[in-house]
Structure formats: C-alpha cells, structure tokens
Recover the amino acids of this structure.
DNA sequence: CAAATTTTTGCAACATTGTTGCGTTTCCCT
DNA sequence: AGGGAAACGCAACAATGTTGCAAAAATTTG
C-alpha cells in the first residue's frame, strides 16, 4: 500500500514527499471521506496545517481526490476512482452522510440519476448527497 | 411585502424586530439564495454580524429558510415554501448553482429523483445540487 | 554521485468566519 | 404604560483559511 501512494503521486507528476505520502495513505487505508479537520487530527503533529491545506488543494487539482460539500460547512475529501484525470472529475456517484456516525462515504455503485432542468439551464455537474443511517449504524 | 414579512414572523411565533424584518425582506424581494456574507454586505452596517448569524439560525429552525451546501464552503440560505413546518423541512427540490454569475437558485418545480441505495442504508434526506449555466447567463 | 535547480515545507502573520457570555435595549403581553 | 421575556450589540475568543518568505527537501542535470 505504501508503494501504491508513491505510484499515484508519480502518475500525477507530483513530487513524492512525506506529507503527501502520509495524507494519501490515510485515504487509501480508510473507507470514507475525510475533512481537513479529520486529517489534521490524525497527522497534525507531524505536518503543518498549511501543508495539509496545500496538499488537499493539489490533490483536488490533480484529480486524486474530489470534494463533497456538506450541510455543516465542512468540505469532505474522498479518493477519486481511476477515471478522474487532472482537472477533470468524473465522480458522478452518490455521496452518503450518516447522521449517526457522521461518516461520509462514496456510493461508487450508485450513479446520480438524470434530472430534467427547466429551459435555459444547462448543467455541467450534478452533486447528490443523501443523508440518513449507514449500514454500519443500523 | 413589508407586511408579508411581519406575517411570516408572526406565523412562526417570532418576535418582530427590525433585523428579522430586514433580513426576511431580502429573501422575499430577491430571487436566489443568500449566504451569510451576502446578507452582511447588504445590511452589514445596520446590524451586527452576530445578529445575522442568530437570525439565520432561528429562521432555519423555524422552517422559514433552508440551507444549501455548496462546494466553496459557503452555506446558502433560501426561502422555504409554505409546506415547511417548524423543524420539518420538505424542500425536496433541486438546487442550481450558476458557475457564471455565482447565484444559487431553487428549482422549485424540479423534484429530486428517487435513488436506490445499497442494502442497509436508509435515507432521511436527499440534497441535489446542479451546477452549470443559468438561464440568465446564457 | 554531487551540485544546481526547482519544488515543497514550516513559520509567522494576517484575514475571514463562526461562537459565547453578558449587560442593555427592544418587544410583547396585560 | 409597566413588567417580564426575548433579542441585540459588543467584546472577546475559537476555528478556519490565506499569503509571503526563508529554510529544507526533492528532482534534475552534469
């Protein structure tokens, strides 16, 4: 798995640094999405807050992670699947936020249903966030 | 319209104060959603920042407005339609964020399509945010 | 492999956003 | 109009996010 983080970074033409490896491995090992705050709590003593911001920023740009807006104003980040290229995200899957455990997960197999917009509107991206109780909290 | 603001406040059993009337009338007159920042810019000299936070908070609780999470970490607030009762929102319509003008609007006539979740997940709320170009920016 | 160059990091300082406590003002009810 | 409750404004603080710059690390080049 350690090697995998390196590969991903190399693939996206990013310098391989400790912070990037560490943060990326958090995503690779964990199941759900992480907020800046989550990451800071897990690696906060090791890396500067600013570094985490910049790392997430560049991961976003390079298509390594995508962001998920949530109601409580905390942006969540989650790994992209392989289809995501630099700057072009194709994460048209549904996101799920559990009201019990607070975790946010990507439902990779659930695609966002089509929606018909009124005349004059054109869509370039659709985000769907379902909240409720996840399977682990039942 | 001024009277309407008073009526809504009375209906929800809120004291009628200048700040609440003013903020509510912003929503009644405007078309789209407003963020805290938008409101602060429009009435900021008149009312304290804290008052705006508290007013939005109580409008949310009383079902006068609902909140719309957006990708740039700025919560938008928009008027609920009448069906929304205190604490119980029924705003199952699609939200649209225009990438050109930045406005967020409620597409009241577009209901969020149903989505089938994996086993074990149960949903209590679904949020759908479409971004693209709105009809005024075409 | 070591030097040169580029990139990234950490620090400091600052800006913005959101929260809390408390005394004063305003609103509501009779 | 007066008494009690609710809301406001202020101040202070906490959390979150941004920017510039020198030091450190990574990558490239000879």
């Amino acid at each position: 798995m350690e090697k995998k983080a390196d590969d991903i970074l190399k693939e996206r033409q990013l310098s391989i640094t400790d912070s990037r490896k560490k943060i990326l491995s958090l995503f690779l090992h964990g199941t759900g999405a992480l907020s800046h705050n989550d990451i800071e709590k897990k690696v906060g003593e090791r890396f500067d807050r600013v570094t985490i911001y910049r790392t997430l920023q560049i991961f976003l740009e390079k298509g390594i992670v995508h962001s998920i807006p949530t109601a409580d104003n905390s942006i969540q980040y989650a790994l992209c699947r392989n289809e995501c290229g630099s700057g072009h995200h194709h994460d048209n899957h549904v996101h799920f936020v559990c009201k019990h455990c607070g975790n946010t997960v990507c439902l990779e197999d659930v695609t966002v249903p089509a929606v018909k917009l009124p005349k004059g509107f054109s869509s370039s991206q659709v985000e769907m966030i379902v909240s409720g109780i996840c399977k682990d909290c039942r």
Observations:
- Chain A touches chain B through 38 residues (CB under 8 Å).
